[in-house]
Amino acid sequence: MNTQFTDDVALSHLGAVARSMGEGLLTLDGAGCFTYVNPAAESLLGWALEDLRGLDMHTTIHHSRPDGSHYPADQCPLIGARRDGLVVRVEDDMFIRRDGSRLPVAYTSAPLNDHGPGGSVVVFRDATAQREQEALVSEQLEALATLQAIRESLAENRFVLHAQPIVNLESDATTQHELLIRMIDRDGRTIMPHAFLPVAEEHGSIREIDRWVIREAVGFVSRGHAVQINLSAHSFGDVETFGFIERELIEAGADPHLLGIEITETAVLADPIVATQVISALQKLGCPVALDDFGTGHAGFGRLKTLPLSYIKIDIEFVRDLVTDEGSRHVVRAVVDLARSFGYGTIAEGVEDQATLDLLRDLGVNYAQGYFLGRPAPAADVFAGPRRVLDGCVPEPPPAALDASWAAGSQPAGIDDPPDRSQLLWLQRLQRALTNDRFLLFAQPVVELAAGTVVRHKLLIGMLGDDGELFAPEEFMPTAERFGLMSAIDRWVLHQACSYAANGHAVQLELCAGTLVDRDIDACVQDELLVCGAPPALVGFAVSASALSAHGTLGPGFVDLMQSLGCSVAVGDFTVFTQLGDRGRVQIDCLNISPQVISSLLTDPAGERVVAEIVRWAEAAELGTVAEGVEDQATLERVHALGVRYAQGDHLGLLVPAREALHPGAPLPAVRR
Questions:
Q1: Which residue of 546, 600, 606, 609 is most buried, as measured by CB atoms within 10 A?
Q2: What is the pLDDT of residues 223-235, one digit of tens each?
Q3: 593-622, pLDDT tens digit by residue?
Q4: Segments making up each domain of the chain, as ranges
């Protein structure tokens, strides 16, 4: 009796402690289901005890990682702790509240034997404030590092300017360029302005940067090039800025009319009186002034009429959806009418397609800039050579070397019709990327569904632009194919693939149809395998179904040779059997089922029928099958149930740089044909 009394008192005390705790406390039985949560846990999770009791803890509140990805139960430390009877402490994890919101947590889990084998108690706390503090400290440390990099770059002259064309919509001539700053780190990497300018503004380095930009811009102006530069609010509010611009122009003997100055609405609002005085002084000097990002700030039309401007720049916010959004069209039309009434010109930013350009022209906008008209390129290249300005006109900049060669009749063989502006830009980027080795390979795992193991990686190519931006293959490959550059690109991919295979990694690459019928590609593959020392069994090729249909001689040529060497061959983007034709003529190993078919699997009964038929046909022909483009767990489970052997897609593994996924120390997957 005394023992029972003592146990009851102890339990009463423990209950009182649990109810009064500021931390959340929950207990789980051996199956991982809730048996108790204290009031703090109810408050933190948004669940009541009576609603949670008996529910599986992992699937209810712990099914996602802090980054939002799926958290498999077999990787959950709480389940491992119950299974092994261990005490576990985790400082960075996340629970999901009843309303679906995320709760950053730190917790400790310990065995609770009186709940049966595998029972446990979990004490957790809200780690939101801690995470915010950690993020703040990290942000401050990053800002200090960036500030140090800015100071070093100023001292070592490691800033560069890129130039983006501004086109007159009436004449289609490029009349000026906007200059955009970049920072080069000590490893030669290009740092975009959004990564360092906010730090420079906050810590007082922006005036030095602005003055560096002014000096460089004046240098281009002195050679006859019309440019626009951006000045920060700090510099625009500095009474010495105007004097500095004036001295630089005089010392260089540069025409002020060619140096445009852009100022934001924020800079105007910071000190409207000083801004008006500086703008007036610049206009008297001869420098045109543009109000940048108009429409996003709060300067308003009343303030606008008091500013002696030359241009209003219409913000990309109203340009990007101009074709589809009636509200944006109303705004642009109103800005154009207003600018005309004040005698200002208009420049639209962020033009990305022909339809938007045509609509801007119809709305009466005077000038436009954007990726469709030309991406930023190194100003030193754009403005190569001297330039003269005649009769006060702003001339179009010198044509690129490619334009000149085309005009001289040296276009690539077999290309009769001249390319449009967009194709010329892509062709120039491709040639620079080939010359400067600016292609990248990305790897995505292919998983054997029965074993759940990665058996190989599919390689996909990307291209880096002049500013370090990454272009997807669908952006540059059409131009590369048209102008005969795909063979050179495919050979680069082949060399990289064989290098990874030489380190023991199984890879698959896809060659374009033109390369597959290249008479030299067979010897090139053999040479790369031999030079790199790559086992042929680790190098696979995906031949598109359209290539098989288009080239009747492909089967007895490239595919048969790859088979004889020991390389695997798959039909990529497979959708229907007519694409394959007579399999007796093309000896393949695997069918890669098109992402378009896989994406319709859960919503379209026809998609399921197609996949089931492909699997039956492949099994009868002793071929493997790969589901491409698997994006979620439900699709993965369905393709597995239908008998598909392998799968690939973001749900199974995102694209990552191949040099990271396939470095010499990376795990080697099992090789299966």
A1: 600
A2: 889 999 999 888 8
A3: 888 889 888 888 888 888 888 898 888 888
A4: 20-126, 153-401, 423-661
Q: CATH fold of 20-126, please?
A: Beta-Lactamase (3.30.450)
Q: The tokens 């990787």 sit on which residue?
A: 75
pTM summary value: 0.47
Q: Rounded CA gap, 410 and 599, in Å?
A: 45
Question: If we measure between CA atoms, which residue out of 271, 265, 320 comes closest to residue 289?
Answer: 265
Mean pLDDT score of the chain: 81
Domain 153-401 top-level CATH class? alpha beta
Block residue for tokens 């149809």: 513
List the CATH code of the domain at 423-661.
3.20.20.450
Q: Do domains 153-401 and 423-661 have the same CATH topology?
A: yes
User: Which residue is listed with tokens 């023991």?
Assistant: 504
Alpha-carbon distance of 91 to 52, in angstroms, equals 24
| SS3 track for 556-592 | HHHHHHHHHHCCEEEEEEECCHHHCCCHHHCCCCEEE
What residue type is 510 in one-letter code? E
Contact 581, 615 (CB under 8 A): no
Nearest-angstrom CA–CA distance, 626 and 180: 46
Total residues found in the chain within this entry: 673
